[in-house]
Amino acid sequence: MSTTTAPTTGAAAELRPPLASLPSLERTPVLEADSASASPAFEALVSPALLPVDKELSLNPAAPAWRMPECWGHRGVSGAENTIMSFTEACKAGADGIETDVHITADNVLVMFHDPNLDRTTDGKGKLHDQPWTGVLEHVRTLEQPSQPIPRFQQVIDLLMKPENQHVKLNIDCKVENDPVKLFGLIKSELEQYEEWKTKLAPRLVLGLWHPKFIEPAADILPDLKRFCISMSIPQVRKYFYDKCHGFSVWYHPLASADGAAFREECRKAGKEICTWTVNGREEMINCARWGIYSIISDKPELWREVKGDLVADRQKVLKPTLSSYILPFLDSRNYSWHYVKKGQEERDYLEKEAGSFDIVAMPETLRL
Predict the structure, then answer these.
(1) What DSSP element (H or E) covers 276?
(2) If phi over 0 gives left and psi between -120 and 50 gives alpha, with beta otherwise, what is residue 237?
(3) Could you read off the pLDDT of 122-135 as tens digits, one per residue?
(4) Domains contained in the chain, CATH given
(5) Please, is 333 exposed, middle or buried when counting C-beta atoms within 10 Å of its C-beta (0-12, 13-18, 19+)?
């Protein structure tokens, strides 16, 4: 599939800066961190300048039908996932937001980590929840080089509060292994340490919820934060989350189906926002732009920035379907219903094993949005 784009002319050329003017995306050098240090040192972060189109876009669902999608870095960027280095690189690559995961340690410290177990990505062993931060987890390092510590929630918020990152959003994937009341209470306690957090932080934070039992505690404890259901199944979104969440973070492949198209239209009419994951291919990114997706969650925000530049230069040309647009979806087994329905059920089975049946969660009518 070709990624060559036509040269820009006229007003489009004014919107898109020449390549020579774009900031360098070289990786941030990492200094050695001793075991007692919470985080390695980094050079000063310089985020790329916003394009004119970034400043002009409206996020109002009642705005014109098409708008430029945002891009949120999936666990930061590809590499050592869920590290301060990864989050920093996502900001430097021009990501509009960061998607990350939260867990609670045995001594009630919030850390950004995906798995319930340490083994896959770090030199630690065992379940994260069973181990304290102080004296144990603070010394754990990633297997991916350069070796990095596990970041705390406070460090990520500090990154977002830097002047150059005041536009960056944070999508917090609330892992089902956590107790929701305890989790949201700890998040609120951390946020309250920041002056004017309800105006400077809350509008940029999204709570990602996998299980219905998280909805009511989120609404009660953190009413100022948006709630987005995370799901691999559109029928599950409709049944358990649709009228109680502000938006939905849905696996890409169900959204590419006929039912996905109908769901996208329902959300558009209702003013509900859709994020989708994990979108790492150019053609999939362009599809998201065709569909009117609110945010693309990707390991490759730098690739999205290229696609975004092409859209600014000649949106009509980029969005026009090509032969690849029609053929490529048939070559990916994940786009077939037998695959994504099976995966959605497997995910639900795990969620219910950890947190109980979806069907026993009763919620008051006042939670309807």
Answers:
(1) strand 273-277
(2) alpha
(3) 999 999 999 999 99
(4) 64-358 (3.20.20.190)
(5) exposed
